[in-house]
Specification:
47% helix, alpha+beta, 7-stranded mixed sheet, elongated
């Protein structure tokens, strides 16, 4: 397989540079359960820059480097995405705070992972290529299928792991381990997630909605009382998994919140381009009138999914425009008022064609 050849070449370069490197996290986990992925995290004991430069020169890769710990995302033409990072240890100065980090070895780097299933490492060094480094019983967690934290303060140090726990549990169909479930419930009871910034909570919620099994993850989060930290009494349903994009899922959820739809969307602090569809469907529902212009195909799709029995005429754009009302003798503010009345009548199914719309406006004169 092509990824093996590339990893072997990087391992040889690591040996020449006198550093050690491992493929860690999701790649190691997925390989163990027979899944393939083109996203590979490479953890390096020592400087990463020689390996990043090697990929750029040998494979013509594009590299986006970050200052902290020689971190870089390297995109290869074959589709592989390699994330290089220097091995490090993390210290949390207080619960839910961003950690302070320092260079360290593989064991400390694996110790900072969220769950044991994500703490498996595979060497890419010559002489031990793809040799497993299982320091935290990762193989057992993966083979038996359960989610387990690495230590009892995991959810205290970083409450975002609460959201990640339900996300991974839903994705793989793995339950929380007994001790992890106990710690999870304890963290929710102590409101650990409330210590996170709003943006960090939203980021984790967005990741859940980007999963194929969003409904199952939301159901788990609801079971443990975690959803209240996102939005109180959040309404959701299994139809969300029939949608493939985050934009559509958020729009459907916004309709499900009823009169609180706009508040829900605003609370997520998302950019305008991410919420345009939400406000399109919310505006249609709140207006209870024919839209001034045609609804987007996505909006119609979401509305029909939310309300399958919606009558087609409620989705049709207004049959007449301002210029039509002007031609019929309406002036100034009369035009807007007349069109609003027409829009409501059309929405209720009383006006079904343009001829009837013209007649309706004439009767208003």
């Amino acid at each position: 397989m092509e990824y093996k050849l590339i990893l072997k070449a990087i391992g040889l370069e690591a040996e020449r540079a006198k550093v050690k490197a491992w493929a860690v996290g999701g790649f190691a986990r997925d390989r163990f359960i027979g899944k393939t992925t083109k996203d590979i995290d490479i953890c390096v004991e020592g400087d990463t820059h020689s390996l990043i430069d090697f990929c750029v020169k040998k494979y013509g890769a594009e590299a986006k480097c970050f200052k902290a710990f020689g971190t870089a995302r390297v995109n290869l033409a074959c589709g592989l995405k390699l994330d290089f990072v220097r091995c490090r240890a993390e210290l949390y100065p207080k619960p839910a705070a961003l950690p302070k980090v320092r260079p360290s070895g593989l064991k400390d780097d694996l110790m900072r992972r969220d769950f044991t299933c994500n703490a498996l490492a595979l060497s890419i060094m010559p002489g031990e290529f793809l040799k497993e480094y299982d320091l935290f019983n990762s193989r057992e967690a993966i083979s038996k299928g359960y989610i387990e934290v690495l230590h009892d303060k995991s959810f205290v140090d970083d409450p975002t792991r609460l959201f990640r726990a339900v996300r991974f549990s839903a994705r793989f169909g793995w339950p929380l381990g007994k001790n992890t479930e106990r710690l999870f419930r304890e963290a929710v009871r102590e409101k650990r997630a409330s210590l996170l910034s709003r943006q960090r909570i939203v980021n984790e919620f967005v990741k859940i909605l980007r999963e194929k099994c969003s409904y199952k993850a939301l159901k788990l989060a609801d079971k443990y009382g975690l959803l209240d930290f996102v939005f109180g009494n959040l309404k959701y349903g299994s139809k969300i998994d029939t949608l493939s994009t985050f934009e559509e899922k958020i729009a459907l959820l916004s309709l499900m919140q009823g009169e609180r739809g706009a508040d829900f969307v605003s609370s997520l602090l998302l950019p305008k381009e991410g919420t345009a569809l939400c406000f399109e469907v919310l505006k249609w529902r709140e207006a209870k009138a024919a839209p001034a212009k045609a609804l987007s195909a996505k909006a119609v799709k979401i509305i029909k999914l939310y309300k399958p029995a919606v009558e087609p005429f409620k989705l049709r754009p207004l049959l007449l425009k301002a210029e039509d009302a002007l031609a019929l003798g309406f002036k100034g503010g009369e035009i807007g008022s007349a069109l609003k009345k027409l829009a409501k009548a059309q929405y209720r199914g009383k006006i079904k064609n343009k001829r009837a719309a013209v007649s309706f406006l004439k009767n208003l004169k």
